[in-house]
Design brief:
- This protein is α+β, with helices and mostly antiparallel strands.
- Helices cover 53% and strands 15% of the residues.
- It has a four-stranded mixed sheet with strand order 1-4-5-8, with helices on one face.
- The longest helix is centred in the middle third of the chain and has 37 residues.
Length: 377
């Protein structure tokens, strides 16, 4: 059990870092569209990448609640940095930590915790996004290892990654029952990365395609028992969706904070615009939905910390809070008016970054379907 004071101290620590070091440079980094190396290394120095791993294994000993507090505060400052951090200490390293050999963890996991190696998580393919049953990347057993062929797309961190956690089929006939995760070093012969995508938002969270052409990996690089890839993915799916809800909450808070400050400062017709009923209604709605989002998210993280099954609840949180973030950022642009159309204002970036939240961790449409099935429909 993590003491409430620990949670408050962590939030204060991350918020101080965000306000002093992240927010002042966020727009400049966004314009540059380059991986934010300096902030990445600072996040590592502050122990953010180690947050959710046990102390006895080189982690910081945090739980799901602390991890999501960190994600929320980072997203309040800069969504690109928050997305990179989440990738580094959840998706790309979880399987390495749980299923890698001691030698693999020494070579890849521990350097990733120190910020010395960057990781990426390779699920999506050109014809397989939500529908993972359609993946085509194959890892064929060959002697004392596997040979991987296939193409992965929309891979966060790919242009700068040192290693990839890759979902492959080892037996096409078995479908997802033959799915496994593999650790692939970037220097492996046959691995190539495309030029980075030019995106609408989260521009410093660089993304590209990763191709595997007869890329050979040792048998030890299979992460988990044969055929257990999807089952192992399902174990962290609730964590991924809770994390995406935390990113959404942080962004919604940023839009709300800027809007509240602006309506007190901006005057029209002789009065602060916050004195007008329609503007007050926008602020009230944003504040109410943010409070509801906070309660929902940390209800889910409490379930995760207790080891309770919560795929339905995590799906609800991700669906609800990401939509709240979109509404909050849209309302912020309406409140700021023409100023929101300028890239010089943070609300412009918030509006662009919200679209990332609608796709990562499952689209709203697929989550609605999952929730319905979890309700017995």
């Amino acid at each position: 059990m993590i003491a409430p004071e620990t949670a408050r101290l962590l939030r204060k620590t991350v918020a101080r870092f965000v306000d002093r070091e992240v927010r002042p440079v966020a727009n400049r980094l966004e314009e540059g569209k380059e991986f934010p190396w300096e902030l990445f290394r600072r996040a590592a120095d502050l122990g953010f990448f180690r947050m959710r791993y046990p102390k006895e294994k080189g982690g910081a000993g945090g739980n799901a609640t602390l991890f999501n507090i960190m994600c929320e505060e980072l997203a309040r400052g800069y969504m690109s940095l928050a997305a990179i951090t989440a990738m580094q200490c959840l998706m790309c390293t979880d399987f390495i930590f749980k299923f890698g050999t001691d030698a693999i963890r020494d070579e890849y996991f521990h350097p990733a915790m120190r910020g010395e190696k960057v990781g990426a998580f390779c699920l999506t393919e050109p014809d397989a996004g939500t529908d993972l049953a359609s993946i085509r990347t194959i890892a064929e057993p060959d002697g004392d290892g596997y040979v991987i062929n296939g193409l992965k797309t929309w891979i966060t961190n790919a242009p700068v990654a040192d290693m990839f956690t890759v979902l492959c089929l080892t037996d096409r006939k078995s479908g997802l029952k033959g799915a496994n995760f593999f650790l692939v070093d970037r220097k492996t012969a046959g691995v190539s990365v495309s030029k980075k995508f030019d995106k609408m938002g989260t521009r410093a969270a660089v993304i590209a395609e990763v191709a595997f052409e007869n890329a050979r990996v040792p048998a030890a690089n299979r992460l988990g028992e044969e055929g257990r890839g999807m089952a192992n993915l399902m174990r962290i799916l609730a964590e991924i969706r809770a994390m995406t809800a935390a990113l959404s909450l942080g962004l919604a808070r940023a839009a709300y904070d800027d809007s509240l400050r602006y309506v007190k400062e901006r005057h029209a017709f002789g009065s602060p615009i916050g004195s007008y009923q329609l503007i007050r209604a926008k602020i009230a709605n944003m504040a109410t939905e943010i409070e509801a989002s906070r309660l929902m998210l940390y209800w889910v993280t409490d379930m995760l910390d207790r080891g309770a099954k919560c795929l339905k609840e995590a799906s609800m949180a991700k669906y609800f809070v990401s939509e709240v973030a979109c509404r909050a950022c849209d309302e912020a642009t309406r409140i700021f008016g023409a100023y929101s159309y300028s890239n010089e204002y943070d609300v412009n970036r918030y509006f662009r970054d919200t679209r990332f939240l609608l796709f990562g961790g499952g689209t709203s449409e697929i989550l609605q379907d999952i929730i319905g099935r979890e309700l017995g429909l």
